[in-house]
Amino acid sequence: MAMTLGDGFNRRKKLSADLQTWMNRLAQSGTERRTFRTQAIEGEQAFTPDPGTDKSLTRHYTIEECRDRIGAVLAEDRELALRISLTNQRAKATVEDLSGGQLELTIPEMLVYKNDLIPKLEAAARATPMRKDGVSVLEEGEGWVRHREIKKVERKREFFKDELKVEEMELLHYDVVDITDHGIPVREAFNEIDRIQDFGQRVKQAISQANKTELVEL
Questions:
Q1: Beta strands 92-96; 102-106: pairing state
Q2: Which residue, 113, 151, 143, 107, is CA-closest to 4?
Q3: Shortest CA distance to 5 belongs to which of 111, 159, 131?
Q4: What percent of the chain is modeled with pLDDT above 90?
């Protein structure tokens, strides 16, 4: 039965787990152990086990057997890695890019887009300043608006009136900030982020489709 790229990746995951299992078994294959408790280490009763304390741990696999299995796993994994590498360069998919054009990409190229380029594009889009919403626009021009932030600065004043303590807020001044906002309109900024995310989804779907390509034979 033909094996696809996706099958190859899954098989290599299984081989990786098998390799670790046999390495663990190899580490335990060199010794057998007997443990017991005794009352004396000299004389006629020396090293006589107390009842119920004598336990033996035997190895389940020999060193040679473990090495043979590890060798077989590594050989299959090496062959699969080579077949996957060769197939990756041949398996291609066509993806619509951000400008509406068509990109024909190999799997390594698509992985570069998915893992590196697209996240950077999205990060750059999110870093673009957005125009502040919910403000009263004083003036606007091409690509900018001007609005104003006003902050009332007060202090609490205490005094006595008719022998009662009275507190009231006293206006000191207003802090005024005039802002010329060159940010991108919020909807426009979010639309750009959505376009990049849609491109990312198309690349992921293309990778899934390309992973159905049959592995080349060595």
A1: antiparallel
A2: 107
A3: 111
A4: 67
Q: How far apart are CA 26 and CA 22, in angstroms?
A: 6
SS3 119: helix
Give the separation between CA 18 and CA 23, rounded to whole angstroms. Answer: 9
Q: Is the pLDDT of residue 1 over 70?
A: no
Q: pTM for the full model?
A: 0.67
Instruction: With cut-offs at 50, 70 and 90, classify the pLDDT of residue 19.
Output: very high
Where b means 16+ CB within 10 Å and e means fewer, 50-81 reads eeeeeeeeeeeeeeeebeebbeebeeebeebe
Residue written as tokens 């010329």?
Answer: 180
Task: Judge whether 57 and 32 are in contact, CB under 8 Å.
Answer: yes
Structure letter (DSSP) for residue 60: S
CA distances from 177 to 132, 174, 184, 204 (A): 14, 10, 20, 46
